[in-house]
Amino acid sequence: SPRSCGTGPPIKYPFWIPYEQEPFCGYPHFGITCMDKNPILRTSNYEFLVKDIYYSNSSFTVANIDVYEDKCPVPLYNYTFDQTPFTYSSENWNLSFFYNCSTEPIDYPTYEVDCAKNATHFSFAVFHKEALEHKNYSLNECQFMVNTPLNINESVNISSLLRMNYTEILKTGFVLNWTAPHCHYCEKSGGRC
Q: 86's torsion region: left (phi>0), alpha (psi -120 to 50) or beta?
C-alpha cells in the first residue's frame, strides 16, 4: 500500500521504499530512501530529493540534494540518465553555467557563481544561452559549460526569476519521465500493484 517518508508525495508503484516494503512493491531503479523524512532517489551518479510524483502521466520532479546542502552548489557535469528508466521532460528549461571565463557578458542578465571565480576569471549562469551568443558574447571565452535542467512553470514571471539567486532557482528542480509497466488496468479492476 502507498507509503510516505513524512514529507513529500505518496510513494507507490513503480516507486517503493527498500527495507520498508517488499521489492515486488516497486520496480528496479525506483527505490526511494527516506532521509530526515524526505524522499531521496539515488541513481549511480546522483542523489535527488523527490519533490513531487505525477502518477497520471509517469513523471516526477526532482532537485539535486547538493542544492540544499551546499551554500554555493556548483554543477560541474550535465546529468545523464543512461542505464535508467528516466528521461528528461520536454517542459524543462536550461540554466547554463559558464566557468573560468575571461570576460563577463555586458547587458545580459547573469547569475554570478561567486565561489567559482577569482581575480581574473568569472563564472556565471544564464537562461537562454543562444540569446547570449546573439549579443556577440563568444562562448570560447569560457573553459567549460554545463546545462542544468529546470522546471519553470508558466506562473513564474521572468522578473521574479531575476531577483532570485541561482541556488534558489536550482531548488525548483526539474521533471523526469519514467518508463515502467503500467498498473492502471489492474487498479481500475480493484487490484493493487
A: beta
**Cell numbers that stand for 77 in this block:** 557535469
The CA distances from residue 34 to 40, 79, 108, 110, 193, in Å, are: 6, 22, 41, 36, 21
> Which pTM was predicted?
0.89
Is 152 within 8 Å of 175 (Cβ atoms)? no
Are 148 and 170 a contacting pair, CB within 8 Å? yes
Of 88, 79, 86, the C-alpha closest to 28 is 86
Distance (Å, whole) CA 97 – CA 77: 10
Cβ atoms 48, 62 nearer than 8 A: yes
Question: CA-CA distance, 183 to 30, in Å (whole number)?
Answer: 15
Rounded-to-integer distance, Cα 54 and Cα 58, Å:
6
CA 157 – CA 90 distance, rounded (Å): 19
CA 46-118-126 angle, to 5 degrees, is 55
Cβ-contact 176, 49 below 8 angstroms: no
- Distance, in Å, from the CA atom of 125 to the CA atom of 128, rounded to the nearest integer, reads 10
Quote the cell numbers at residue 138.
563568444
pLDDT digits (tens, 9 = 90+) for 122-174: 999 999 888 888 888 888 899 999 999 999 877 677 778 888 889 999 999 99
